[in-house]
Design brief:
Blueprint (H helix, E strand, L loop, with lengths): L10 H7 L7 E5 L3 H6 L4 H4 L5 E5 H11 L11 H5 L4 H14 L6
Antiparallel strand pairs: 1-2
Length: 107
């Protein structure tokens, strides 16, 4: 629970943390794993160090819920549905915005 109150970090700090597992944190894919795999992206790209960040577990759950919630931001679709068949750059943009939205990534 303490990790939930971490101050936002730089992308580099979050990526570095992905190689140093800690209790209370999860490894998160900036570009979502399951939808990227479903759209044919290679696992070596999906699991690349640049796409992995260590984030507080409770915030990880919040981001997962956000990806499943319809929003006006995506024309009434869920972020997950919106991102289906989008290119890598758009998936990464939305993923980074989610990290900022939940106070994980420095703006």
């Amino acid at each position: 629970m303490v990790s939930y109150f971490d101050v936002p970090k730089s992308l580099e700090e979050l990526q570095q943390g992905a190689s140093e597992p800690k209790a209370g944190y999860d490894i998160h894919h900036i570009v979502e794993l399951s939808s990227a795999r479903a759209d044919g992206y290679a696992m070596n790209k999906i699991d690349a160090q640049e796409n992995l960040v260590q984030i507080p577990r409770m915030k990880h759950w919040e981001i997962n819920a956000y990806y499943q919630t319809a929003t006006e931001e995506f024309g009434g679709a869920t972020p997950r549905a919106y991102l289906s068949h989008k290119d890598w750059d758009e998936r990464e943009r939305v993923g980074l915005e989610a990290l900022k939205r939940y106070g994980i990534l420095k703006p």
